[in-house]
Structure formats: C-alpha cells, structure tokens
Automatic annotation (TrEMBL):
Belongs to the small heat shock protein (HSP20) family. Keywords: Stress response. It comes from Thiorhodococcus drewsii AZ1. It comes from the Bacteria. This is Heat shock protein Hsp20. Residues 28-139 form the SHSP domain. Residues 148-158 have a biased composition (Basic and acidic residues). InterPro entries: A-crystallin/Hsp20_dom, ACD_IbpA/B, HSP20-like_chaperone. Residues 138-158 are annotated as: Disordered. The keyword NADP does not apply. Signal peptide: none annotated. The keyword Transcription does not apply.
Length: 158
C-alpha cells in the first residue's frame, strides 16, 4: 500500500496538524458499507447525517459525541424465535460508524423515523473566535485591534 507524504504542507500550514492527521487517517480507512448514510448540508452552519437503520429500535441504537468524534452504534437484541429461513438477506448484525466533527460542531437533535436515523448538527463559533478587524496605525492612535464587541458598542453609540 502506498502512503501519501504530507510533509511539504507543514512548511506553509501552521497549526493544521490535526487536519493532516485526519487526511492520513481518511486515506488509510477502508470504506465501510453498513449502514449506508447521507451527510446533508442544510445551510452554512447546519448539517444532517441520515443513517439507514431499518430493523433497529431506538433502544438498540447509541449515539455518543466525545470531543470531535461522533460515534453511532447499534446492537440488535437476540430474538428467541429465529424461524426457519429459506433465505436470510436482512442484515442482523451490529455496527459502529464514526464521524470526525470539526471544531465547534455539536449534536442538537436525533430522531428515528421510518427506519432512518436523523442526527442534526450545528456549528456554533464563539464570538471570540469570529473574525476581527485589525487597524494599521500610522501614529499614536487608539487600540490597533478591534473585535466584534467594540464594533457593536461603536454602532450603538452612533
């Protein structure tokens, strides 16, 4: 198996170590097919993951968000009456599917309807992390860095 060398990116990208690690992990990860899923962008900061989990009840499914990892797992309960099948094509196995979440993305809702598990996510960037304007001073003037709260106060005063 060949590997990708991301070391040239380290020369111009500072602080993106986690991104490079994620790229390397994604390259090594083999695609899994069960259960099938969709990732939908609803708007700029809202996402929805939909997994096809037919045959699972909500008590057999588990959703866990820890740090920047969302883990969805399902374990079918053993049924006492297995029956005498001529053909068995419906999957009766458990699963675990992991999704790497970006910073400030959190799970806000999960629902199970018609065999589809919907997980709604929202990215909420704190005010202190939003872009701020940096003025270039020519002489002795006020502060060089203006953040969102300073702009709001200036707008209220005007």
């Amino acid at each position: 198996m060949t590997t990708l060398d991301f070391s040239p990116l380290f020369r111009s990208m500072i602080g993106f170590d986690r991104l490079i690690d994620s790229l390397e992990t994604a390259y090594r990860t083999e695609p899994g097919g069960y259960p099938p899923y969709n990732v939908e962008v609803q708007d700029e900061n809202s996402y929805r993951i939909t997994l096809a989990v037919a045959g699972f009840t909500d008590s057999e499914l588990d959703i866990e968000a820890k740090e920047n990892m969302l883990t969805v797992s399902g374990q079918r309960k053993a049924t006492e009456a297995e029956g005498n099948f001529l053909y068995r094509g419906i999957a009766n196995r458990g699963f675990e599917r992991k999704f790497q979440l970006a910073d400030y993305v959190k799970v806000v809702d999960a629902s199970l309807e018609n065999g589809l598990l919907h997980i709604d996510l929202v990215r909420e960037v704190p005010d202190m992390m939003k872009p701020r304007r940096i003025e270039i001073r020519g002489g002795e003037q006020g502060p060089a860095i203006e953040d969102a709260s300073d702009r709001q106060e200036a707008a209220k005063a005007a």
